[in-house]
Write a structure and sequence with these properties.
alpha/beta, about 40% helix, Rossmann fold, binds NADP nicotinamide-adenine-dinucleotide phosphate
Length: about 250
């Protein structure tokens, strides 16, 4: 059947696949025919994603991408891939004046340095196939807006969006495309439950023209487009998916 969005015959790496958006991306990519290579830190939750994958030649590996050892393990075990989705990330909301060097290192470490360095290592080790697509899960925060307590998180996501533009120019010679997906609020565990009241939550949701937060699967469908040959002329772009939030 004609389907320009198919991932059949492609191998796709997904980080942060043990939870939330990364989990949905891994599962939906497998449903679109990809063999997926997934990673996360929590063995039990990563395995639960693995068990939900549609049929295919899949692999899972536990790794802390904040460490050199974790990056080395992933690079060594990874087969050469046609798609990479950098999804692992943390939020760590804190007022700016309390966001010292330690917080900056932690947030920049996993949100910026890890995906950047992992991409470099994969390129050096020739693990990224000609014609591949690299997708960074960034955010509207730091690109189009921010929030109270979101300064360092925004900085890490803004940095990713800048990195992608330079990478896209350089990697075009190998026909490798590089893009970001910038979601608004998505229903996951990234913001620890209980930090805001139900009333505050409802008020926040009401700021969205579509009157709800996004679902992880909705982000996955955009990622599938960017991984597929349907987006073969799209590179260096930042795709916003936010229920209209940043229009207002
Ligand atoms: N949810 C939102 O509203 C939203 C909006 C915009 C952008 N995003 C971005 O989307 C991405 C995924 O967020 P999410 O909402 O799905 O969050 P989540 O449910 O908390 O998942 C985060 C994932 O990142 C992994 N991770 C964190 N630190 C890691 C490390 N040091 N090494 C390896 N893996 C690590 C976690 O693995 P373990 O659990 O196994 O440790 C988990 O799989 C993040 O980059 C986030 O910034 C989220």
């Amino acid at each position: 059947m004609y389907n320009p969005f198919t991932l059949k015959g492609k191998t796709v790496f997904v980080s942060g696949a043990s939870s939330g958006i990364g989990k949905a991306i891994a599962i939906e990519c497998s449903k679109m025919g990809a063999d997926v290579f997934i990673t996360g830190r929590n063995a039990e939750r990563l395995n639960s994603t693995f068990l939900e994958l549609d049929k295919g030649n899949h692999m899972q590996i536990i790794a802390d991408l904040q460490t050199d050892e974790g990056i080395k393990t992933v690079v060594e075990k990874m087969p050469s891939v046609d798609g990479i989705v950098h999804c692992a990330g943390i939020a760590k909301p804190l007022p700016f004046r309390f966001s010292g060097k330690e917080v900056m290192n932690e947030v920049m470490g996993i949100n910026f340095y890890s995906p950047a360095i992992l991409s470099q290592e994969l390129l050096k080790n020739k693990k990224i196939n000609r014609g591949a697509s690299i997708v960074f899960i960034s955010s509207v925060s730091g690109v189009l807006c921010s929030s109270v307590g979101g300064s360092v998180y925004s900085a890490s996501k803004g940095a990713i969006n800048g990195l992608v533009k330079g990478m896209a120019i350089e990697l075009a010679a190998k026909m490798i495309r590089v893009n970001t997906v910038n979601p608004g609020m998505i229903d996951t565990n990234i913001y620890v439950a209980g930090t805001i009241t139900q009333e505050q939550l409802n008020e926040d949701i009401n700021r969205y023209p579509l009157k709800r937060y996004g679902k992880p699967e909705e982000v996955a469908y955009l990622v599938i487009y960017l991984l597929s040959d349907a987006s073969s002329w799209v590179t260096g772009s930042g795709m916003v998916i936010d229920g209209g939030y940043t229009l207002l």
